[in-house]
């Protein structure tokens, strides 16, 4: 379990605990979106300083809290200039993602069909998300990419998962709208 103290941690955790008690997946993610937007703007809550330190060869995933009582996991991600993800899923876990600092480009993908390990996707809308914005993913509508398109600024996002997300499927482009699915173990980078 992560043990990283930061200003406003108790306030953030209390608000998240209340939100995850909201009911079904749709009610929980709606409550978490509102809570996360409020916490991003709350001057009493500040992420640990290490969260703003990018890692050169990949975006950083640092777990800053895991609820022993409710099972959810809070991961802060640090996106260096140009860093991003391939099309990926969340292995059946709901997730609420909020931009804490900087800007991120988020593109949703619609699954059109699949044949074994080959999947056909089409981009179904994208957005530039800035500080204080949050969205949610509820399976089966979980396919997306995230990218920091800035050439020189770091972006930080906070992701609340139903449970610790230790792996996902990523989708590697083949031809046209077709992608090959590959299992991807997800590492947690050290937070200090």
Distinctive features:
5-stranded antiparallel sheet, 6-stranded antiparallel sheet, mainly beta, Jelly Rolls, 192 residues, single chain
* Distance linking N and C termini: 14 Å
How many strands appear in the DSSP assignment?
Answer: 11
Supply the number of helical segments. 2
Indicate the overall shape: globular
Radius of gyration of CA atoms, rounded to a whole number: 16 Å
**CATH fold topology:** Jelly Rolls
Main sheet characteristics: 6 strands, antiparallel
Tell me the β content.
35-45%
Which strand order do you get reading across the main beta sheet? 3-10-11-6-5-8
- CATH class category: Mainly Beta
Helix content: 10-25%
> Unreliable stretches, pLDDT < 50, 5 or more residues?
none
CATH architecture designation: Sandwich
Question: Could you give the order of the helices and strands?
Answer: HHEEEEEEEEEEE
How many separate domains make up the residues?
A: 1
What would the average pLDDT be, to the nearest integer? 95
- Derived from helix and strand composition plus strand pairing, the structural class reads mainly beta
Please name the fourth-level CATH homologous superfamily. Answer: Jelly Rolls
Q: Can you offer a commentary on this structure?
A:
The protein is mainly β and 192 residues long. A hairpin with a 6-residue loop joins β1 (60-66) and β2 (73-79). The strands form two sheets. Strands 3-10-11-6-5-8 form a six-stranded antiparallel beta sheet, with no helix packed on it. It has a five-stranded antiparallel beta sheet with strand order 1-2-9-4-7, with helices on one face. Helices cover 15% and strands 40% of the residues. It has a single domain, classed as Jelly Rolls, CATH 2.60.120. α1 (9-19) runs antiparallel to α2 (25-41).
